[in-house]
Write the structure tokens for this entry.
Amino acid sequence: MKSISTLASAIAVVLLMGGSPAAVAQVAAPASVAAPQAGMSQVVFFRPSGMGMAISCNIRENGKMLGTANNGRYFVLATTPGVHKFTTHGETTDELTIQTEADETAYVKCKIGMGLMSGRPNISPSTKEEFDSRVAKMKPSDPEKMAKAIAADDAHHAGEAAGATH
């Protein structure tokens, strides 16, 4: 009941300040991450707003692009429990090895640091609490755009592999 009155108060404040119904949707409720499928694990990759707005945090495992977190975006990767070595590449390559557990969610934050010519994506372990404190200002990565980026990356790497065999 308290959450309903909190939501009603937020809507009233937005409307009193001249906000539109679209603004109400932004204020309403922060996203939550559902539990992983039974027996599986998942990793939430998120990139809070900040420096390097045009730089993506492309996450890979074993050279395969898994997803991308742009400025103020996040995505959830369903995976098998066990050890995973994730990498991201910009001016340098950063890597993070984590152990995921069945029925649990791990959190990884991507932050863009200063580089010589461009930004340097850095990935580090995070917590549900940190993600929850920032999720209201973030949006999920667009699945269609992410699928296109992954397909383009796969095609690029297939072309490199074909060129290396000739």
Notes: Residues 71 and 95 are 19 Å apart (CA to CA). Residues 143-165 form the longest helix (23 residues). The radius of gyration is 19 Å.
